Amino acid sequence: MINDLKKDSEQRMQKSIEALEQGFAKVRTGRAHPSILNSVMVSYYGSDVPLNQVANVVAEDSRTLLVQPFERQMVSTIDKAIRESDLGLNPITADAIRVPLPALTEETRRDMQKVARGEAEGAKVAIRNIRRDVLSDVKALLKEKEISEDDERRASDDIQKITDKYVAEVDKRLADKEAELLKV
């Protein structure tokens, strides 16, 4: 019973790490990477779909993304969606769409660093919330007399160790992202 709770908490914490990585993908580092546009939604026949479902996105060079729509009439719609996204990008439209990434100034790098720290803090909060939920489940088991107090203490210690491991992982990934952001 306790092992199931530990396994479940570990899986949920791992999902928090994956969500952190997706959040970090949105943070521009000055280099062109197709994942920057993952959050862009495009209106396609009345419904919003992710950009990568209506176009091919590749890094043309280190500072330019190339977006090639699958359907020619989607060029203007995709252009509009990229401009209206909160990424601050201005695409250049022809047959395909080129998205130049502006060089990051020191101030922009600091802003991106703050965004990355916010994403990391969100992941830590999610991990701590998972810990809180699992500990309340363990306490409920103790209250129902399904486990002993020793088992409850041992489980609490184990869950804290798992939490510490994932918080350290968040810190490590944040440090890597910050180093990547500050590298000119």
UniProtKB/TrEMBL annotation:
Stored InterPro entries: Ribosome_recyc_fac, Ribosome_recyc_fac_dom, RRF_sf
Record bears the keyword Nucleotide-binding: no
Compartment annotation: Cytoplasm
Record Pfam families: RRF (PF01765)
Cellular component terms per the entry's GO annotation: cytosol
Segments forming domain Ribosome recycling factor: 21-182
UniProt keyword annotation of Protein biosynthesis present: yes
GO molecular function, one term: ribosomal large subunit binding
Domain of life: Bacteria
GO BP term (any one): cytoplasmic translational termination
Keywords: Cytoplasm, Protein biosynthesis
Stated role: Responsible for the release of ribosomes from messenger RNA at the termination of protein biosynthesis. May increase the efficiency of translation by recycling ribosomes from one round of translation to another.
Family statement drawn from the similarity comment of this UniProt entry: Belongs to the RRF family.
UniProt-recorded name of the protein: Ribosome-recycling factor
